[in-house]
Amino acid sequence: MLRNLAGASRIDPMNTSFAPPHLVDDELDLLAQLLPLARGLDIVELGCGSARLARALLRRFPGSHVTGLEVDVRQHERNLADPQPGLNFIAAGAQAIPCPDQSFDLALMLKSLHHIPVDAMDAALAETRRVLRPQGWLYVSEPIHAGALSGITRLFNDELVVRAQAQAALDRALTSARWETVIERSFDTPVHFRDFADFERRMIDVSFAERHLDDQSRAAVRARFEPHVGADGARFTRPMYVRLLRRRGN
What we know:
Blueprint: H1 27-34, E1 42-46, H2 52-60, E2 65-70, H3 73-80, E3 87-91, E4 104-110, H4 121-131, E5 132-143, H5 148-153, H6 160-175, E6 179-193, H7 196-204, H8 215-225, E7 229-230, E8 233-247
Parallel strand pairs: 1-2, 1-4, 2-3, 4-5
Antiparallel strand pairs: 5-8, 6-8, 7-8
């Protein structure tokens, strides 16, 4: 049985005045509270990136199996070069999942739904439902467009609209009666950068986005970042919004 966590409530993730209730250092802890991971699940992560959480999940719950889908060719190659028992990778997107019907117990979208093209979000959620078994779960974790870190990243990558579109796609999916909401939850997660070079590597010069900032634009980002740097680097909290859905029907 899933446990409904105290303080869960429906919020507006685009409301910049919203203050999430508490800090979650490791999202895997939250996931493990919500879902029976110890039982051993077949999991698909859609837009897995480096599959950091999936790798940690398999170390903690070795009975599970994770299939990670990634559209970034360079990241996919890095993933293949770093194998791990119980984990396999496919170069594909969520809108066309190359897996049979009803293959998985759980689908994960970790900061990835808003990266899907807006006109493909509905198809991606339909595909996700197709590959889930009856009563399978969809865990969607999305950043809220608020806070100091968002104020910096919006200088070169303003995601206000696409994040709102991601939530709207989930709302549409729920009106179809093919999904039901299990829980909605908000939290803060800590983010640490050693210095601006670390921020550039992880947030600007990423392989999945061809961002070519000129010197003036990069200097403007740095000017907004540097006031947050202390003796141990720059520390932020990122507000997050989780929606856990369950597949209805056969």
